Amino acid sequence: MIRHPGPTARPLLIAVLLAGIAAGAVMVARGFLPTRTLAPAPAAPVIAFEPATLDMGELIAEAPKTVAVTLRNISGRTLRITAAIANCGCTTSTFPADPVPAGGTAEALVTVKAPPTQDESLMKSVTFVVEGAEPVSLTVLGHVMKSAPGAVAPPTTVDSVEELALADRPTVSPPAPPTIPAPVTPAQPLAAAPTTKPATPAAPVTPPAQRPITFARINPPIQPGARVSFPSLASWVKGTPITSFTPGKVYVFEFFSTSCSHCKEFAELITRLARTYGAQGAEFIAITDEEAPIVKAWLAQPGKLNEVPYSVVSDPDRSAMITLQNGTFRNFNPRFFVIKNGIVQWFGHPKEAEEPIAKVVAGTWDPETVRAAAITDSTVSRGKDLLDRVARECDKSGDWTPMFAAVDAVRAAIPERAGQYDAQRFVIMIGLGDMPDAGYEFGRRIAKEYAQDMPTTRSLARAILNSPYAKRRDVDFAMELAVTADTLAKGEDARAADTLGLAWFSKGNREKAIENAERAVKLEKDQKTREQYQQALQKFRTGTPGPEPTKPRPIPAAAAPTAAPAATPGATPSAPPAPAPSHPD
After folding, report:
1. Dihedrals phi, psi of 414, to nearest 5 degrees
2. How far apart are CA 456 and CA 304, in angstroms?
3. What is the signed CA dihedral for 4, 84, 222, 233, rounded to 10 degrees?
4. DSSP assignment string, 530-575
5. Running DSSP on this structure, what letter comes out for residue 348?
6. Longest dimension (CA), the chain
7. Is the bond preceding 212 in cis, omega lying within 30 degrees of 0?
8. Which of 13, 334, 486, 562 has the smallest number of Cβ neighbours within 10 A?
9. Facing residues of 141 across strands?
10. CB–CB of 224/418 below 8 Å?
11. What is the DSSP string of 387-430?
């Protein structure tokens, strides 16, 4: 799936490899705007973008592309950027974790996943929220190329090693971080750890020059159970304007963009939800930051009004986003917010929305039941931002020691997700960290610790089978892990079945690989994910069985040869698509 990147493309791949820590950019709410008043003259911008408009150039349909943009502080004082919020789910952006001094610069990476429509021009936006100043928006342009006849976008895989903990949840109480190295006696059905090679210490001491890496747990201001004001909305393109919550009424706010392929993918579901629960009294309001003429032209398309049985609002100053989305601290911003009596009941992805909406409408929903999980997800998102930044620094220096400290800092703050961070450490150790002996020793230890945790066990197996930079693949150990995961899932989890199929293929057994891949396809309910499993099934049917080849450890970016200038300022060379999150918000 992933080709060997050029030196300037590698930071993108590294970020992808280490972004399996589920969702995350630090978002700080700027407060609420209960009523719209006459606005004063806009303040002078405090951030200038270089280039002023980010042109992504040519895009491949359904394939993400990442381009760097420079943020220059032109305010005369130190600034802290607290969020990077895209106007739709097709676009994401990083933002600098450290304050930017007056006159200083920082980098952000903007990623756009092009829609399936070809030969189409796109315009997106990313809003950077600045502490103590007005938000600053970056316009992002691109053009989806027309593919050659029969061309297929490079496939992505759900639950691949690059996203190995994105949607996983430990199912047992997490243990304390294992001390490395130490002899173990693994639990069945895992095989005994090898004793022929001494383990290498897996937690190197941080060099004295390296500044300490810390990570604190901060509760998001927007969470289930939080009270919010009615968003201040600019232009009601369709529907009767509303300025306040009616007691007892259920409101469902959907954030979307008329050009977002992710939004189009779930349009039919959203229409059905709006018809079903709108008939039971719920008020559905779709909000976009696009200007009203664009939204009106979109609604004027043949049949569109019938597809949109709810209110539609143009909110170009993003006041609704500020009121609701910013304070969730989420990278993939929640598209749906369900609110009753001014209290947030639930937020998340449309395909997970029906049960909460139905129960809120019926009066049987308690937001407390999902509050803890929402807070954890928000903390994971913030942790991802730290890990992405440290990964880029490690890629430049070639020293991955700081990455272990970063993973440990995030793990300590989020013990309920300890399994996914232990799996992340394992990926680094057997690959870019260049310590496979200690890595496999550690892997067997956490396999024992999480012997009843199917997601972590499955993630370890995928890491061994798929990690591009693994120094070696212990396919027998991966098979043990895959069998364990599938057993724990009682044969009913599509991802576990897919992983077991890959393990059999890696061991050279085409028949068993096909058998399990067919089961994964049958079990999977999500259409796009099912298509990915079908691609894997086709590979098992026609490819040559055996382990995936591994790539050599990349040369540090600082020492790599200078690449030819990109056509677009800040653009990375064409690269394979990053794996899409299984539940993007």
Report:
1. -130, 65
2. 44
3. -130
4. HHHHHHHHHHHHHS--SPPPPPPPPPPGGGSPPPPPPSSTTBPPP-
5. E
6. 75
7. no
8. 562
9. 55, 123
10. no
11. HHHHHHHHHHHS--HHHHHHHHHHHHH-GGGHHHHHHHHHHHHH
Hey, what are 290's tokens? 């696009």
Report d(CA 275, CA 298) in Å as an integer. 20
Runs of H (alpha helix) within 213-291: 261-265, 267-278
Q: Is the pLDDT of residue 444 over 90?
A: yes
β-bridge pairing 250-255 and 283-288: parallel
Phi/psi at 442 (5° precision):
-65, -40
Q: Are 242 and 283 in contact (CB under 8 A)?
A: yes
Angle, helix 368-397 to helix 10-17, in steps of 10 degrees: 140
Q: How many CB atoms within 10 Å of residue 240?
A: 7
| Cα(283)–Cα(493) distance, integer angstroms | 36
Q: What is the pTM of this model?
A: 0.68
> Which residue type, as a one-letter code, is found at position 388?
D
Task: Name the DSSP letter for residue 79.
Answer: B
Cβ–Cβ < 8 Å for 334, 325: yes
The residue written with tokens 């009424």 in the block is 249
Tell me, what DSSP letter sits at residue 337? E
Length of the chain: 585
Q: What is the DSSP letter of 21?
A: S
CA-based nearest residue to 263, from 421, 116, 59, 381: 116
Task: Point out which residues pair with 71 in neighbouring strands.
Answer: 49, 106
Cβ count within 10 A of residue 336: 23
For residue range 320-350, list pLDDT tens digits in order. Answer: 888 898 888 886 778 899 999 999 999 999 9
Residue 33 has pLDDT above 80, yes or no: no
Domains in the chain with CATH codes: 46-144 (2.60.40.10)
Nearest to 466 by CA among 20, 8, 62, 12: 20
- Residue 469 · residue 551 · CB < 8 Å: yes
Decide: 199 and 445 in contact? Cβ < 8 Å. Answer: no
Residue 42: pLDDT band with limits 50, 70, 90: low
